[in-house]
Design brief:
- The protein is of the alpha+beta class.
- The protein folds into two domains: about 120 residues, D-amino Acid Aminotransferase, Chain A, domain 1; about 140 residues, D-amino Acid Aminotransferase, subunit A, domain 2 (D-amino Acid Aminotransferase, Chain A, domain 2, Alpha-Beta Barrel), CATH 3.20.10.10.
- The chain is built from seven helices and 15 strands.
- The strands form two sheets. Strands 7, 8, 9, 10, 11, 12, 13, 14 and 15 form a nine-stranded mixed beta sheet that branches.
- Helix 4 links the parallel strand 7 and strand 8.
- The two termini are about 30 Å apart.
- The mean pLDDT is about 95.
């Protein structure tokens, strides 16, 4: 596969960053994961907005315009002969003096890593499991999509079903989010809910799409309260809206849920 690295298309095995890069040494880096449909990055403006806000929080300058990155995405699709790509746009802070650096990072290493995806848009049903230790607190004033993924990896390791989506709660037992997703649920009365960002959840782009198109209440929830929900979905930018079929010994309607069908139909229409 061909990647895009610091302004150029580069074959995968030729991509590298310096060992002194603070993204490697101290985790000072951010990324956005999104996908293309027929060469077009979906919801890219929302990903760009979140990335710029997060870069500003970490004092990392970004040396490319939105238009330049969009052009690079099209180049990646053509060079790889893959119109439907999984893309990770990664910004590693760059080389700085060894030790805790208090200045701005002016020369980050910017890379787009890709892999092909099927074009077919079908809902991917999920099982979920509670993770037996708490979600780490955000490193900044809000949850960054940063290089700090140790909490997530350790959570993945404890799953009884490695294909399930792990579900984090905070120290007080309130659900935050999944390993790589936000959570929505349908209450017994039919209302649609999600956990508030104040819980430490990531401001997910697909989460934002659902909240812009449907009436959603942000509300804290425990594992026990979630257990009796009528429907549960997990959202992220690759799996998009993934309906849940099982949680512990409880069965949910998955893609057959009435509210899910409503939301999924509108989501598919939004793809054009």
């Amino acid at each position: 596969m061909w990647y895009w690295h610091n302004g150029s298309l580069v074959e995968r095995e030729n991509v590298s960053i310096p060992i002194e890069d603070h993204g490697f040494l101290y985790g000072m880096g951010l990324f956005e994961t999104f996908r293309t449909y027929d060469d077009v990055p979906f919801l890219f403006d929302d990903h760009w907005e979140r990335l710029m806000e997060s870069l500003n929080e970490l004092w990392i300058d970004f040396p490319y315009t939105k238009a330049e990155i969009k052009t690079a995405i099209q180049q990646l699709c053509r060079q790889n002969n893959e119109p439907n790509l999984y893309i990770r746009l990664n910004v590693s802070a760059g080389v700085a003096p060894l030790g805790l650096y208090a200045g701005r990072y002016e020369a980050p290493n910017v890379t787009m890593i890709v892999k092909p995806l099927p074009k077919a848009i079908v809902p991917q049903e999920k099982q979920i499991e509670p993770i037996p230790f708490p979600r780490s607190r955000p490193e900044a004033a809000f949850r960054l999509k940063s290089h700090h993924y140790m909490n997530n990896i350790l959570g993945k390791r404890v799953l009884e079903n490695p294909d399930a989506e792990g579900l984090f709660a905070d120290e007080d037992g309130y659900v935050v989010e999944g390993l790589v997703s936000n959570i929505f649920w349908v209450g017994r009365e039919g209302g649609l809910y999600t956990t508030p960002l104040s819980s430490g959840a990531l401001a997910g782009v697909t989460r934002k799409w659902v909240m812009e198109h449907f009436s959603v209440v942000e509300q804290p929830v425990t594992f026990e309260e979630l257990y009796v929900a009528k429907e549960i979905w997990m959202t992220n930018s690759i799996q998009q809206i993934a309906p849940v079929t099982h949680y512990r010994d409880h069965h949910y309607p998955g893609k057959d849920g009435s509210r899910f069908k409503e939301v999924w139909a509108k989501f598919v229409r939004s793809l054009g």
